[in-house]
Design brief:
Helix content of chain A: 25-40%
Order of helices and strands of chain B: EEEHEHHEHEEHEH
Number of domains of chain B: 1
Helix content of chain B: 25-40%
Structural class of chain B: alpha/beta
Shape of chain B: globular
Strand order of the largest sheet of chain B: 1-2-4-3-5-6-7-8
Structural class of chain A: alpha+beta
Order of helices and strands of chain A: EEEEH
Oligomer: heterodimer
Strand order of the largest sheet of chain A: 1-2-3-4
Radius of gyration of chain B: 17 Å
Number of helices of chain A: 1
Largest sheet of chain A: 4 strands, antiparallel
Mean pLDDT of chain A: 91
CATH class of chain B: Alpha Beta
CATH architecture of chain B: 3-Layer(aba) Sandwich
Mean pLDDT of chain B: 95
Radius of gyration of chain A: 14 Å
Strand content of chain B: 15-25%
Number of strands of chain B: 8
Number of helices of chain B: 6
Largest sheet of chain B: 8 strands, mixed
Low-confidence stretches of chain B: none
Chain lengths: ~90, ~250
């Protein structure tokens, strides 16, 4: 289905795209038809800097399963990192 | 009609909602015409390869087809434009109607037009097609392919961009309607398709709904896992016959 659901998350960091490194301040997250991935629906994330607009975005389209694994990996890495650096 | 006729395609300028200058992919069969035409409305991911391919399929069948880029106001490539449109919660229904009117005006102004124009859309484009068929009285036919949210159950889902429950427009549709749906779809699901059909029936509209077992959402899309070859071929066959009947 086509949905209008978008989760906007404030970020602080940087991402690297074809033009090199850019500062990012927002992630737009949605689950909908992808533009490119060979999936019916995908978890899509656009990492952007609001000042630069969407044409400078770093985009990913992930299957639902792989998105869940990524979430678990992020949480696991954060947990291990906090323990190692505390 | 000779089969597998040639065609020409090009990106053309259209005048969209509020006079905004936009663009559309246009496919025309070889020959002088006159031809009927289809305005083809893309889904949320925007003006992509699939919509160009679908436009060319109509030209092979002897119909002109114009597919407006509903996100032309945004900068960047079509996928970037779609990302911006999605981040903004989609485009407004009023704007879509204005842009479709612009596409319709482009084809009707051509010397090789027979004056008859239909509208077809996939997914959110199916919903848009439903609305356009009601709000553009000169439309001659509509094909709704699994348009989601044609029936809005929760009024809280209505927004400034989408302020009207599309089913409330049904009374204004004066042209014949073809609906194509997969029985495994979740939006629209079986109950919603049944409700839409019941409304059209009660209003005395001319419609034909086709429901396909073993198919879900977006089953025409040959580049996606949801593609169902048998159902898609039959759906296209019904679509061509419908448009030839009403746009010929």
């Amino acid at each position: 289905m086509c949905t209008y659901i978008v989760e906007k998350t404030p970020l602080m960091g940087a991402a690297k795209g074809p033009q090199g490194w850019v500062s990012i301040d927002t992630a737009n997250v949605y689950f909908d038809h992808p533009f490119h991935a060979p999936l019916d629906h995908s978890l899509n994330i656009d990492f952007i800097n609001e000042r630069d607009g969407l044409s400078q975005r770093i985009a990913v389209e992930l299957s639902a399963d792989s998105a869940m694994r990524l979430v678990e990996s992020i949480l696991s890495a954060l947990k291990q990192g906090e323990a190692a650096h505390s | 009609m000779s089969y597998y006729r040639g065609m020409t395609t090009q990106v053309v300028a259209i005048t969209g909602h509020k006079g905004d200058k936009g663009e559309a992919y246009f496919a025309k069969p070889e020959g002088d015409g006159p031809f009927g035409a289809v305005v083809l409305i893309h889904h949320m991911p925007g003006w992509d390869d699939w919509i160009m391919e679908a436009a060319r399929k109509f030209a092979h069948q002897g119909l002109m087809c114009i597919a407006p880029n509903l996100y032309f106001r945004e900068p960047g490539s079509p996928d970037d434009q779609a990302a911006k449109a999605r981040a903004d919660g989609g485009v407004s229904d009023d704007q879509v109607v204005g842009d479709v009117e612009g596409a319709l005006a482009y084809v009707r102004a051509r010397k090789d037009s027979n004056g008859k124009v239909g509208v077809m859309g996939f997914c959110s484009g199916g919903r848009h097609a439903f609305i356009c068929a009601a709000r553009i009285p000169s439309m001659n036919a509509i094909v709704d392919c699994w348009g989601g949210s044609v029936i809005v159950e929760d009024p809280a889902q209505l927004t400034p961009k989408r302020p009207v429950n599309p089913i409330d427009y049904a009374k204004d549709i004066q042209c014949p309607i073809l609906g194509i749906f997969g029985n495994d779809d979740k939006n629209p699901d079986l109950a919603q398709v049944d409700k839409t059909e019941a409304v059209l029936k009660s209003l005395g509209k001319t419609y034909s709904f086709h429901r396909y077992d073993g198919a879900g959402h977006g089953f025409f899309g040959s580049e996606r896992p949801a593609y169902r070859v048998e159902q898609a071929l039959d759906g296209w066959k019904k679509t061509y016959a419908f448009f030839h009947q009403h746009l010929g």
